Amino acid sequence: MATGSNSSSQESKQPGPELPKQLPFDFLKKITNDFGQDRKISGSPFGTLYKGIVPDDGRVIAVKKLQENAPMPADKQFNREVQNVMSLKHENIVELVGFCCETQKKLVQFDKRYIQADITESLICYEYLPNGSLQENLFEPKGSTKPEIGWDVRFKIIKGICQGLRFLHKLDIPIVHMDLKPENILLDANMVPKIADFALSRVFGQEQTRLCTQTVVGSYGYMAPEYLYRGEISAQSDIYSLGLVIIEITTGEQNPREKDQPSARSFVDKVRKEWTLENITSKYSSLDHESLQQVKTCIDIGSNCVEIDRTKRPRIEEIVDSLNGLRSSQKVTEVSRPPTTGKKLMGSIFGLKK
Fold first, then answer.
1. Per mean pLDDT, which range of 93-97, 98-102, 213-217, 246-250 is the poorest?
2. CB–CB of 64/40 below 8 Å?
3. Following DSSP, what letter does each residue of 22-91 receive, concatenated?
4. Which residues form the Protein kinase domain (predicted)?
5. How would residue 102 be classed by pLDDT, with cut points 50, 70 and 90?
6. Alpha-carbon separation of residue 25 from 20, 95, 347 (angstroms)
7. Phi and psi, residue 118, nearest 5°
8. Helix axes 235-251, 265-274, angle to 10 degrees
């Protein structure tokens, strides 16, 4: 993967980032307490994530054990995730720190009796992110000890996800994630978001902008219509999913993920109808002028990202530029404006008449 490289003379002076290591299965089994329930972080159709504690130095890593009966064969998942993520280094992409692909002899039941068979165990190890997934932090059941996320942190998370996605899409050999959703955004100790789980990711060749597939695999509620119905894959497939994630973060409303709504069109229509200017200022009544502008822009961006026609969706660099420009542009307009609140504030931002 071409992510930028040094000459041989530079490498001798400044060693590059340490590449992930192949780790023994028995070692991963030991540090996860034999993949015990007490070490389980989360589970999905593709694999189960465990907390691993390295005995020598107490370092904590996340160990993903791929499911044997996943929607996609484990070897294909493993190859995609390891190869696509191995050399990626970015603040908003989860770091791969090790992997294991080892064949073990196991007793398995076959035709009412047990036989010895060769089973290949596939595991991928990542940096451990203590604040868990965005899903947990946004939509944790009532009674959770996790505090509600304020707007400043929500905006920081949105910007971080977009920066991570721009990094993937603008690589010399671009990567399309294909499964962007709150469960696959992990948060570090400072609530910095990192895109994770590349099991469905696709690598594009140079000058290539689109792929077609007959095998459509993804998460209900986040699949772009052109992928769902025509098997078309492009960077705009991720933009559609990103739009839904931005809408969820901004509004605090959860995409219901109904099986008859794989592209969440009812959810999109509901948000477009209900999240009027009045609703924005009511929901975020304590925010100042600058922050309310951020909220409105994020809802607009999310809405534009989920256009059915993929050619009408913004490119990731346009989204990042819009988000980065908010703060500086607002400072200019606020200099001569006295503080305002409530409906007067809404009018001053959005040009409403009294």
1. 213-217
2. no
3. E--HHHHHHHTTTT-GGGEEEE-SSEEEEEEE-TTT--EEEEEEE-TT-SS-HHHHHHHHHHHHTT---T
4. 35-326
5. confident
6. 15, 20, 61
7. -85, 120
8. 50
- Is there a single domain that holds both residue 64 and residue 210? no
212: enclosing H helix or E strand: strand 210-212
pLDDT value, residue 330: 39
| Structural domain boundaries enclosing 119 | 16-127
**What are the residue numbers of the active site?**
179
Specify whether 145 is located in the same domain as 121: no
> pLDDT value at position 335?
30
Residues 79 and 147 in one domain: no
Q: For 76-97, what is the mean pLDDT?
A: 84
Separation between Cα atoms, residue 161 and residue 165, nearest integer Å: 6
70-79, 129-138, 256-265, 298-307: least confident range = 70-79
CB-based burial label for 332 (10 Å; 0-12, 13-18, 19+): exposed
